[in-house]
Predict the structure.
Amino acid sequence: MTAQTYTLSNGLRIIHLPTNSQVAYCGFAVNVGARDENDHEHGLAHFVEHALFKGTRKRKAWHILNRMENVGGELNAYTTKESTFLYSIFMEKNFSRAVELLSDLVINSQFPENELKKECDVVLDEIQSYEDTPSELIFDDFENLIFAGHPLGHNILGNKRSLKSFNTAISKSFLERYYVAENMAFFTMSCMDFKQVINIAEKYMAPIPTQKTPILREKPQIVHSQVLQRKKKTHLTHVIIGGRAYNMLNENRYPLFLLNNILGGPGMNSRLNVNLREKNGLVYHVESNITSYTDTGVFTIYFGTDPKNRERALSLVEKEIAAFCTNRLTTAQLAAAKKQAIGQMGVAGDNKEGMFLGLGKSFLHYCRYETLPEIFSKIEKITAEQILETANEILHSTNLFKLIYE
């Protein structure tokens, strides 16, 4: 499948990926997230994403919720630290209905005060639920540790004080600043002819404002690694080890991706899972992850364990890290790792919603869609030397932070 692109006269970029399915997808990707909030706006990007569903000039909240649900479709949204996604999944014959609704939300949202008060309580409940889940909370605390004082360390959900200050005027101002054509991309996946997609987009999206507020993102400064322990009322000890990684434009992210997949990726045969769980029974779950931002990235290893097993589990993790920094993968190990990673990505690519959202993210940040065959080709070219160099750059002990909940 070859993606097709077009730019409307107001500057809105469109990308369309043809499919053979009668199920269609479309949405807006907006280049704004938690790191773009002002000091008094913590949580506002996420709050506005919620509040978009609470009323427009032509619809009340109830009508918005029912517009796609009544034809069996879905309406969804989420916020990250650098982007916001608003999208719908539906039968292809309802394409125009979905585009009209999504356009109405980004152009005409009114943020009525009575609805905002109720939504504030909803988000506060979301925050409390999140804080009751240490295995999730620790990741945000870790980013706040390695990006000390930088907006990338902010919790996406915000806090009670900031949420209570949000009102109609503040929400509208945020929408007007960032939900503009040149700061957005419209992405679709359907069997519809691309000319029809463009015609429908022009019909409903022409009123999206053209002007763009410059997004000024400062790269986080270097912070020296440290170990931090925090007292939490939890049964398990929760641990994250990690540090800074490559940004989303750095080609070294491919060797790091493969390294991560071998070390603690989704496979049950990852080195960390085999050594910590299968051989020694120290953890129920262990994983490693990479998060890439436009100007930096994060690499993490997480596990939860009984407090009495903490030091032994840490020792095994550090042993695996050291092995990557000192030993080249053999030809057979590298070939097996590539085969597994490519197979996993191929299986994951069968998830149409995941593919669709990947299309939007790729087009928003790269202005193109990187196909699976292109990614497979880059993985096949990775050498054992690149893996070793990447390990020493990212996983060297002098670069690693530790955060422990106990």
About this structure: The chain has 15 helices and eleven strands. The first helix runs from residue 44 to 51.
